[in-house]
Design a protein that fits this description.
heterodimer, A: alpha/beta, TIM Barrel, 3 domains, 12-stranded mixed sheet, globular, B: flat, binds iron/sulfur cluster
Chain lengths: 455, 46
């Protein structure tokens, strides 16, 4: 299976199965689709009014060479990888701890309903947190690297407990030969020098939230009293990012129907000095006025292209204005193995979320949905059926993904969005798919341009 | 080649051998978390 696209003056042909990516000229770009169905003679005739016979034959020759080398039209025989993955003993290697089901912002698109998660306001106790640490150590088998993410609501609203859990985990990791990597996600309102210092000492990664330009951010991310959050958080975030040498953090935002010109928000953040930026489309039901609609897609594609071209230019120039945009980063030569690409995020299997009360869910976005409660940190996993369902939810188990060219880049999308929008973890959310595909194309376009320059 | 320049050699097939050890980071792709395209993650089993 191949996929081709043309953007910013480059023609790209991708071989989906081998992962090979080719930059091609116009003639190969034109004939490659017909190559498998038509013989060379027929191709010469078909393209006679556009290309000379010699040129077509030459292009065919090169296509054939790639095919023979296993870099084009490669057959898909990856389904057997799944047996291999299936045979692994189940382990849990990452937990998302919901430190506080409470928040000091009232973001309009919050899936957690202002931190309450379909429940009530509550804070995790140190006891539950420590039990969660015990649980992951016990469930992680021989896996050494364990991830724990402090999430909310707003985790800084319960920061003393975060510290207690970190301290406990540091003691336990020595005993059991584990290595904990902590991440914290914060909206920044409560950030101060002391907390910053603690985070820099103890957290492998920090995720900070800002939607971009002041008016955009303040419209969607107001404080509890209705006033905006931008003026309070931006200086704190700038200081935090600098104190981490502009690495091992990222600033993330959400764009909605109300700022389809989100490239301006991304560039705004870059101009504020941030170097690690992630801005994603909102996920919401069609009836929400901020939700992305099918009809918005063409405008968003254009916006992504604009951003990709700008980013390419800034990479080229380097220096002050350069930055990383998370969704246009792609590693075409390294990157994860096929097995990992088929199973994706690991929700419900390798990755679980823990509520303030100690209940276990497949991931942070399923929290509060009773039918997905899998057990507790006190009793362990009690719903093997749910775990198995998530385990079976790989790329080849989903009708839409099975033959999608993007499947080894996106890994079958987000199960939570699929459930939320389509009522099944096996049915991906189409708008997210369309945007994902566009982003992968943009990422590859940037690589292709850089590659052309080197040649 | 005159008409084609290949950006990468076929790495995906080669990963079958070491595949699936599971030491790498999990990769939530959703906007509210790490939102990472799987293809951009790194393998810890080099
Ligand atoms: S560490 Fe590498 S080989 Fe192991 S599962 Fe992750 S991507 Fe695959
Ligand atoms: S883009 Fe959508 S259909 Fe394609 S693999 Fe990803 S989730 Fe599946
Ligand atoms: S299901 Fe979605 S939100 Fe949950 S961990 Fe996976 S990608 Fe993230």
């Amino acid at each position: 299976m191949i996929h081709k696209f043309s953007m910013n003056g480059v023609n790209v042909v991708m071989d989906v199965i081998s992962g090979a990516v080719h930059v091609v000229d116009e003639i190969v770009y034109d004939i490659v689709d017909s190559y498998e169905e038509m013989c060379e003679e027929a191709l010469v005739v078909k393209f006679a009014d556009k290309y000379s016979e010699k040129a077509v034959r030459e292009a065919c020759e090169e296509i054939k060479e790639l095919k023979d080398a296993g870099m084009l039209f490669v057959e898909d025989d990856y389904t057997n990888v799944l047996d291999m993955v299936g045979k692994r003993a189940p382990v849990v290697k990452a937990l998302c701890l919901h430190i506080a089901h409470d928040c000091n912002l009232k973001c309009k698109y919050c899936f957690a309903e202002e931190g309450e998660y379909h429940g009530h306001r509550s804070l995790m106790s140190a006891e539950v947190g420590k039990k969660a640490i015990d649980f992951i150590i016990k469930s992680s088998g021989s896996r050494r690297n364990l991830e724990v993410d402090f999430f909310g609501g707003e985790p800084l609203m319960n920061f003393d407990v975060v510290k207690e859990i970190v301290e406990y985990a540091r003691e336990e990791e020595v005993k059991y030969g584990k290595n904990f990597r902590f991440t914290i996600t914060t909206n920044g309102i409560l950030l101060n020098d002391e907390i910053q210092e603690y985070i820099n000492k103890n957290m492998h990664n920090v995720v900070i939230s800002l939607d971009g330009r002041k008016e955009v951010n303040d419209r969607m991310r107001p404080r509890a009293g209705g006033q905006g959050s931008y003026d309070v958080i931006v200086p704190k975030f700038q200081k935090l990012a600098e104190s981490r040498n502009q690495t091992d953090y990222y600033i993330r935002g959400t764009f909605t129907r109300q700022n389809l010109d989100f490239s301006k928000d991304v560039l705004h953040m870059a101009d504020l000095g941030f170097k690690q930026i992630s801005v994603e489309p909102v996920v919401g039901q069609e009836y929400e006025e901020y939700a992305i609609r099918e009809e918005d897609l063409p405008a968003i594609y254009e916006e992504y292209e604009r951003l990709a071209c700008e980013l390419y230019e800034r990479h080229k120039e380097g220096g002050e204005k350069d930055f990383n945009f998370f969704h246009f980063m792609i590693d075409l030569s390294g990157g994860p193995c096929v097995a990992k690409r088929l199973v994706g995020c690991g929700s419900g299997t390798e990755y679980l979320a823990v509520t303030p009360e100690g209940d276990l869910y497949p991931c942070h976005q399923f929290v509060g949905l009773d039918e997905f409660k899998m057990g507790t940190v006190f009793t362990g996993l009690e719903r093997e059926d749910i775990r198995e369902n998530f385990e079976s939810c790989n790329v080849y188990a989903k009708e839409d993904c099975k033959n999608c060219w993007c499947r080894f880049y996106c890994s079958g999308g987000c199960a939570a969005n699929a459930h939320q929008l389509n009522g099944s973890i096996f049915k991906p959310y189409k708008i997210a798919c369309d945007l994902q595909k566009k982003r992968v194309e943009c990422a590859i376009m940037i690589k292709a341009k850089q590659f052309q320059e080197e040649c | 080649m005159k008409h084609v320049k290949t950006l990468n050699t076929c790495m995906l097939k080669n990963t079958l051998k070491k595949g699936g050890c599971g030491e790498c980071q999990t990769s939530c792709q959703s906007a509210c978390k790490t939102s990472c395209t799987v293809a951009n993650q790194s393998c810890e089993n080099k």
